[in-house]
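# nightly structure sweep
# worker-07 picked up a monomer target from the shared queue
# config: single-sequence mode, recycle default, output format = structure tokens
# input follows
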Amino acid sequence: MADHYFAVTGSGTGTGADADNPQTYSTANFNASRSIVLSGETVYFLDGDYNTVPDFRYFNSVTFKSLNVGGAKIYQVKNSGESFSGCLLWPPADTTYTFEGLKFENLQPWIQTGSSGMGVNLYRCAFYNTTDLLSGNRGIIRQDGSASNINKIYDCTFNYISAEGNTFVTNCQSNLDFQRNSFNFDLSNHTSSVVKATGFSNSSTLKNCIISANSSTYVNSSNLEFSNTAENCCINNMGALNDQGGGTGDGTNNKFADPQFVDSANGDLRLRPSSPCINAGTAS
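# output follows
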């Protein structure tokens, strides 16, 4: 096996063969590595800020990983009211991509799994924006396609500052396994448009997740019901059908309360000591 290592521009002068000899990241170098990295191997990003929109369409089942969890940030600079840059996570047929420990700033993950055997796994990644952004009515995560593979999204955070005019905060179709994730939707910039969250209601698993908006005013009252199939989740301000007693059922051991993030406005989704979510999950 031959993993590949990238470093930010100016700090990598090697061939990428190991962490001591990383290759300088550039679009050309990244694209060239597609023919080098084989199935089962890993593309590592050393700590640093990568101002880019990578095209992750490799030919094989590859893991893209921050050498240290949260140490590598892939980002774009955006101004208020601009649109997300889409980050294409499009594996070919019979291929799975795994992303682990990376931070994505002002980048919207777009998972495309429409053919047989296609899959994308997100582990311990953080997705967030630094100002209110439009999403093309796709939200902070988009997933298209109904391939049979289950896309696993575990231990991730999604902190979305939504811009007026958005109508979705997530827009996913099917075959998603959500476990131990935190979603925070900041709707402070909305004045009239209301949003929906799609993907939770048709997920294969929705367990040990926090799904919260800072206000119910601009959440569509007919937002698709997902609380009835959720398990050990904390759900807050996600539409009348997802209020306690508001839909066809309250699911299994769910909390319907403010999760009490430390400082969601500045991206800190840790929980305060008084949070009702602490010790409310299940290990099963």
